[in-house]
Model the fold of this input.
Amino acid sequence: MVGRWFLAAVLAAVPLLPLRAQSSAQPGAQSSAVSGPRPGAAQNAVLSTEPEHCDTPDELIASPSSFADVAAALQPGRTLAVLAVGSATIVNPDRSTDASFPAVMAAALRAAVPGVEVTVTVRSGRGMTAADMVPVLKDALARHRYQLIVWQTGTVEAVRGLPPDDFLQTLTEGIQAARDAGADVVLVDPQFSRFLRANANLDPYLQIMRQAGTMADADLFPRFDLMKHWVDAGEVDMERVDRAHRDSAARTVHACLGRALARFVLQAAATAKP
Done:
């Protein structure tokens, strides 16, 4: 049986993979499913990015966890079911899920592990807090078996100035529900934004998310630090492009995040005990 060594072998290849794939999506008001076929020449190129926009230092996406549930599913001939829960920034500005960073992640995983199927179900809503998401998460877990939960949150709490202690308790509850259901968990923190930093105190919520990952057996994917790195490097900056190119910049950011998230997940799966 293909095991941990296989995942370790494909991990290094992910940054070089072209992300051009077609995904089928059935969007809903709060929920949509994305499960794409393998990339093909005749398919529309909806997930694309230029490599120079994705300089991602390994140290920024070094996962300390071992994703045993993901490792067992991320094998040729098997299916990795992913549930992505979040607020508005988990999907693209045009509300499409097939160009969102969870879908890009899925495309990269399919390409990295030939023969595996990766399905993504997205549950999202503008203005949703983590407390709003926990019932959605539990309902989805009760209806279907998922091996990976990608949980994006924290921005709404920071904007509203909600109590950080309550935020920690909510995250712990949601992570525990996912772990009890046999899923590995990736937390995704807020996106980098100068405007957001100037108008909200993000630091307590970023710290809470790091703490929750350590306390509750989850892992934090540092979206904030990655986007700041790309901005500081002059690679992609959604806040300083003209309006005509803003959606294009957002698609590039999602593609870059999806590639990095795939590397993050593969690394955590590769270190899991067989």
Notes: Confidence is low (pLDDT under 50) at residues 1-30, 35-52.
